[in-house]
């Protein structure tokens, strides 16, 4: 399961939305421990019953540090609990995770130390015995690549109604056996330094006007922001690099009234850091890590890929995105096939997207056309008789080799240890095949963007298919799953 995380966050870390409201959460200091919190007298048996309780997550009835990622057994009825911390993998490689509980539970794991990036990786929708790992297929995660030396936020949520309550989380590190996660691999200490920068460290930006944002250390009263194209000036906290002293969690560069009021020059790397300050705390200031971002000499935010036949019809959409502040570029598959290497056409397109992401800062990619225009990468997660169309292949630009075993069948179980399965760019397909359909699509985009009510950009309607695998001789490419949702009227 790769579900985007909802608004739940640990009290140890302020979510951006919470911070904007002036809320700051705190946590116990517990290095080498798992934190367990609980809420009593909560009805129902689903995790949603817990998270919808107005006391959750800010006001638990109690908390304690644990030596194992496991709660007590037969402890109480009608309660919910959360176990969380920052996972510290002992070695790099693929990890499997399991969760067991009575009654229901969810296991969330972030792609880094930021809880806001956590994804649902396993769940119990009924009930299991203590440490019963194999009752439901949903109890086990996919293989997840983790790196030693990094921290990953991990959280288990459990809701008990009655009976033999329990909750535990196990993992299997590379080359090892399954075991309940020990507290020695978990850190739940106070965060004193700023973290979770945006732009992300090392990112490529496509605009010369940049908002710098971060999440705060837990004892900060003020934030000293240093910024410069000279890394030493930032690292040494030179006075000329100090651009803001603020109580807020953001500042801007490249705007009138800010440093570089006419915009940041392109083709340059920029460095910045945030020091957390509180004059009444003896450890203040807490110096932050030096982060960086760059603005390519030829920045491109929006990339549209189509064929030469449809390129003139799609160009107005690219021009519109450029006018909206997202520098756009249109590439044809014919030019991509002539320039980029690859074992086949989908790999050539993926290599092109990766190049534009790394060297031009592309964040948004539109595949302009159905399968007759832009080829589909078909994956075989279970057998050669089951295939799934996966445009995620194109958006996972640095996610490894999707055909690691070299048999020409992509996305198999044997390939998973090499696949990150995390999109690096926002990618979507416009599944149409004629210039007339493109014109109809563009007109609808303009109407929608110019006549919709305020806030429309934060809403979406998603269509999907539960399961998504056609077995036996029936294949996606032979079915009607491709029929576009389009209307040129």
Number of helices: 8
Distance between the termini: 38 Å
Can you tell me the number of structural domains? 3
**Structural class by helix and strand composition:** alpha+beta
Helix proportion range? 10-25%
The overall pLDDT, averaged over residues, is 84
Using the CA coordinates, give the radius of gyration.
Answer: 25 Å
Low-confidence parts lasting 5 or more residues at pLDDT below 50?
A: 1-30, 466-476, 478-489
**CATH fold title of the largest domain:** Jelly Rolls
Question: How many beta-strand segments?
Answer: 26
Principal-axes shape call: globular
Written description of the protein model:
The chain has 489 residues and is α+β, with helices and mostly antiparallel strands. It has three domains: 185 residues, Jelly Rolls (Sandwich); 101 residues, Immunoglobulins (Immunoglobulin-like, Sandwich); 177 residues, 3-Layer(aba) Sandwich (Rossmann fold). Helix content is 15%, strand content 28%. Strand 6 and strand 7 form a beta hairpin. Helix 4 runs parallel beside helix 8. The radius of gyration is 25 Å and the shape is globular. The chain starts with a strand and ends in a 38-residue tail after the last helix.
A few lines on this structure:
With 489 residues, this protein is an alpha+beta fold. It has eight helices and 26 strands.
Task: Provide the fold topology.
Layout: E1 3-4, H1 16-20, E2 34-40, H2 47-51, E3 62-66, E4 79-87, E5 93-102, E6 104-110, E7 118-124, E8 144-146, E9 152-160, E10 166-172, E11 179-180, E12 186-187, E13 195-198, E14 203-204, E15 210-215, E16 222-228, H3 231-235, E17 242-246, E18 250-253, E19 268-277, E20 291-295, E21 302-306, H4 311-323, E22 328-332, H5 333-339, H6 345-360, E23 364-368, E24 378-379, E25 388-389, H7 392-395, E26 426-430, H8 435-451
Parallel strand pairs: 14-20, 21-22, 21-23, 23-26
Antiparallel strand pairs: 1-7, 2-3, 2-4, 4-9, 4-12, 5-8, 5-10, 6-7, 6-9, 10-11, 13-15, 15-18, 16-17, 16-19, 19-20, 24-25
